[in-house]
Amino acid sequence: MTKTAAISEPLMSADATPVLPENIGFHIRIVQMRVFREFYRTFEGSGVTPGMHTVLAIIRDNPGIRQRILAELLMVREPNMTRMIQGLQGAGLIAREVDKTDRRAFHLVLTEKGKGLMDSVQARMDSFEEKLLGGLDSKDRKALRDYLERILEAID
To answer: How many Å apart are CA 95 and CA 83, to the nearest integer?
Structure first.
């Protein structure tokens, strides 16, 4: 049995339900794994990965963000971020512009191709989010974001 199958279909007898740990970290991890699985299903054939979409969305929403800030935000080591940025740049999705005040720093922006890709997958992203959060009304969604932000602040 694959890990994905084990997550989606826990082994149990006909009259028993598995007992899962009450630990919130466990539940966050299971949600993360299932979200990634659903992301790959939703974006199949697009060439877009979760990490790629995240980076492109942040650059789209924060044009001119510095590479170092992006790495810190995503908690990625700078050499790893550099490789990802180089790959996105090589694919023509982003451009690195040298900072006028600090020649060692780069500002990141989407290219027209990058903007086009993000526009072309937006409907898939909307569908993906609706599937994930469809059982929550707008008040619940806001509360979930607030709870997640509070958790992040507590462990920052």
So the answer is: 14
Q: How far apart are CA 95 and CA 113, in angstroms?
A: 10
Say what the pTM is.
0.77
Instruction: Read off the pLDDT of residues 85-125 as tens digits, 9 standing for 90 and up.
Output: 999 999 999 999 888 888 888 899 999 999 999 999 998 99
Query: In the chain, which residue ranges form alpha helices assigned H by DSSP?
Result: 3-8, 24-42, 50-61, 67-74, 78-90, 112-133, 138-155
Number of domains in the chain: 1
What whole-number distance in Å separates Cα of residue 58 and Cα of residue 68?
13
**Site of tokens 């512009």:** 97
* Domain harbouring 77, CATH code: 1.10.10.10
pLDDT digits (tens, 9 = 90+) for 40-89: 999 998 889 999 999 999 999 999 999 999 999 999 998 999 999 999 99
- Owning domain of residue 95: 20-155
Check residue 48 and report its DSSP letter: -
11: three-class secondary structure by DSSP: coil
- Phi and psi (nearest 5°) for 107? -105, 140
DSSP state letter for 19:
P
Is 11 within a domain?
Answer: no
